[in-house]
Amino acid sequence: MNRRDYLRSLAIGSVGFSVSPFESLTKGTSQENTDTLPAGKLKGDEIYPAAGYGTTTFLVADAAVIRRLENQLPSGFIPLPLQTLNADELVGRLAEGNALVWLGEPGNLPPALSVGGYVISDDELDIGVKSDSPILWPHLPLTRAKVMGAYIAPPKGMPYHNVDEEIRADFLPIWEAKDRFGNVVGYPAVYMNYFAPSLALGRFEGCECFFFFVHEPLKLMDEQQWKSILDQLDRKRRSFLQVTDFNTNYTAFYKKERVQLRVRLRNRNQRAVSVQFRFSIRYPDATDFQPLGLLRRVPEGRSSTEAIFDFVPRFQPGLCEVRLEVLQDVSKAELLAVDGNLEVIEVRYLAFKLAADQVNTSVNHEIVGPSFKIDGEEAFWAGTHYYPSSSWWEWVWRDYRPLKAEEDLAAIRKAGYRIIRVWINPVIDEQVLRSIDVAIEQAARNGIVVILTLFTQWVRQMGFQRDSGEQVLFDFRHPRDFNLISVSLRNLDLQREFISILASRWKNAGNLIYNLSNEVYIKDPDTSQMDKEVQDWEEVTMSRGTLRDSLLYKRWANVMTAVLRKAGSDQLVLPGYVFSTVDGGDVNVANADAPMVPWHNYYPAEHAGLKLQYLDPISFNKPILLEEFGYGEWNPTERYDGTAHYALAGGAAGAVSYEWGLSWLSKESCYWPLPLRETLVDDPDPRWFAPFADMARLMSDKGVGMCPTPSGTGYGSIYHGTPFPASAAVALGRLGLFGAGLQRVAAPETAYVVIPKAQLQAINTLDDTFRKLWENHVLFGVWQEDQLASLPDKVQVLICPHALGPEGTAVIERLRASGVSVFTDDTWVSSQLLDRVTVEAGGEGIRVVMRRTAKGMLLTAAVEQPVDQAVLAYSYEKVGMGLTDFGVVHLTKSGIPLVEGARKIYIGKRQFCDVESGRAIFATEQPDLLKAATVKLMVTQPTRITFQRTISQLCISDGFGHEHPIQGGFKGNVLTVDDQLARYVILVKFGKGRMG
């Protein structure tokens, strides 16, 4: 399904079906009959009245499948042939609390149910029951089948909280599909448990949907086997029980603390029933669950019950898993004095951490000049934002689910990401802090660096709890402070207290980086917006303008960093990205004391390269990180791919996407008012951040939440509810998986572009200059104005398209007098002093971005229209390739160890390979691809690759550096990459023979 369609309204059109015994659910029936539809007759109707609440289960399948299953259906099932399904009517009945079994492909599935399907493979896959399935199935001889993967697919990408409908449901996998390599690649069957009414529209409470996305159901199992499935689901529905919540009071517990398990369960029956909860635990490193205990409850008719079970676990540090089994004798459930023959109705799992008193993880990163190292390796790194619930950071740490996060973080690492960025709640307490404890440690086990952001533009009030138990709430942003975004010059002492709590708690978290502010806009703050302490800062007395604003922010960041240091935290501290492109401060000045400069990009992909070069801190010998980038739709593959390539080309230490996507849906609506609406006043301050007022005008006063839209649904890059990356996440991950050795290095150049200090009006002029340099294939460096005195002696050309300040101008004139060529316009184009790449063929329209690496030169070619063959030559090296959009070449003195390109790829005069379709990236740890015994590669789509050497063995990598030999996929010198193999890093080992 086209995800752009999800940005439309929730209006659902009829999709159509064949003749149905449930007439109003077929196309062409009248609306007036919908209130008198029979509810169906269930087994044991003397106990379960036919008119009971939510008693009907609709089976939607192809008409031919229904004909084969018709005599096998439980009596409470209403079959609805897919060919004439009336989707609106079906949604209406499900909204009342009835149930659905969907058997077949999901193409006509009503979007309102918030479930979709994606193609896992064109081939059949191995199907099995997931180990933590919420439904216990009888033994089912599942075989290979063609299936699709289910995932959470909200009908609207960016709904407004409390205005548009948002589903509240648990997405619980039932079956898993494995590819031919034995790895789980999708969930073809899931249970969608709508545990509460949808937000805004209040629909679907009590509804349960079971989706089986099987291409040919009766090829997978025969009628009797499907009958056993349907009977099990019928028993689940006839129990009238629905688990609506299962959690613990904390996600981490210390030695001798009591763990509290809380279960909430709804009884849809009109009368009271009995039910038992059985709890068991699996300790870290154990293989089996051990019994914990039983609780019995009798929920009244049409009501809920809560059971709380607490215990002191055996202390064994690590992640503990708890299993809840709901037991009932369905036929005797209303006989409250007896238990009967209890059977498991459904199962749930959760996890918590048995933890030491303080987080203690190894230091896994450091900064060396302009390079960022992780686990001792220098590379270009991929990363992502991780807010696994639709409620963003303001609620996620109060509903953090370690079991699901464990799966997510392993998948994040496997996808090639080594950085995650998260935000802390604006109001912190022990529940919030323990959840972040667990997340930090889970990330560390997967070799992931955590960037924790403290202050954001979305909050007005913040808070914390003192050791005395006192809860402190303070204004971070006054209602008239919209010229100060993500920074506050009020209540500094309370900000210090807030930070000191974190610093003391996480001073031994070696995989943690602090990011003080998310996105900073600082514009001419006055003394009425400042504490007395701030008013005494020398920066306050400076002339108003960008320089003063930037230095004020720098001073504030130093004050906050000092709090961390005083508490014993020696982690890296990044002050924050500054809105330089909208006149909100100079990011380099503001981060002058920082070890690394962060920047964000929501412009088109090329701007990642343009702005990186404008903000380039190489003259300060520090790295720059694309800390946040994205695009407002689900799975924007071209934007992710393009932005990552421009970030790599321009020398970023890494690229961190916004964002991974949803792992679970929020339990409740956000609870903060919309703070941006405070900009809607009759007398807006001209200093205010104008985009906020534009955004606020789109927000209803009925909305809620610091940000009015959910996390993930508009910006995500996974199949929500699963750990499986979609194409956008894969595109970014490819460069992360192949980034070793491509890190930025400081090296003298013959030509530099000079960036004026704190003159943000120069940005557009510099953008034009950089574009022309790329189009003319020029090798150049960037130097900031206030570092001109330390320019390398090698410089021969300076390009200064915008006027500098007095001191910078004086330095330029001295250099001009010493013989350096200085250009203030585009006449540099004809200069013979410039170092250039020669594009020998197909040069028209090709941009080339060049930069140094530790062992050589990285060339990135970009085109808007495909080029069949382009030849890039530099020094004595030459590479030819086709270009679909991007091409990358790593030139070293020892050879060419990395190429990304399309079609026929030549290294020097020798052909390396021929890529039949799409683009492929090839790399080797040896000096040169032509001579390498092993080449690793990834492709953008299924393809055939013909090498000039004989293939002897094929392996795949699991993303953690482990190789797994595989059979098939190659013959002679031809590698066939199908849609299953295309997901992996492929390692091709060559024999001694050379083809052709």
TrEMBL record:
Protein name: Glycoside hydrolase family 5 domain-containing protein
Parts forming coiled coils: none
Lineage per the UniProt record: Bacteria, Pseudomonadati, Bacteroidota, Sphingobacteriia, Sphingobacteriales
Alphabetized UniProt keyword annotations: Glycosidase, Hydrolase
Keyword Protease: no
Organism (species): Parapedobacter defluvii
Lineage: superkingdom: Bacteria
Residue intervals of the Glycoside hydrolase family domain: 400-632
